[in-house]
Design brief:
This protein is an alpha+beta fold. It has two helices and three strands; from the N terminus they run αβββα. Strand 2 and strand 3 form a beta hairpin. It starts with a helix and ends in a 17-residue tail after the last helix. About 5% of the residues are buried.
Length: about 90
Amino acid sequence: MRDESSALGHPYEIVSVRRAKPPPGAEGSDWYRYVITQGANTIHGCRQGNLTAVTWAVEQIVFQLNERRLGKRGRVHLVLAEKKTHS
């Protein structure tokens, strides 16, 4: 059994974003492979685009993973108004 409590203390971080060949079955050029870590956990992924766009997208992934890891904050309870019916 893994000790997941140690991973909770570590945020997700980008380790690398590097140019790569297209993944099997994919077409086109400008592919990048990225690596994200959180403690001993590692996420590998591929994304197509220029380096700036891919890096920005991976930063957004890391941001969202860290937000989810910490729990959603500042949630607002919305109350929907009743619809008015016209007679």
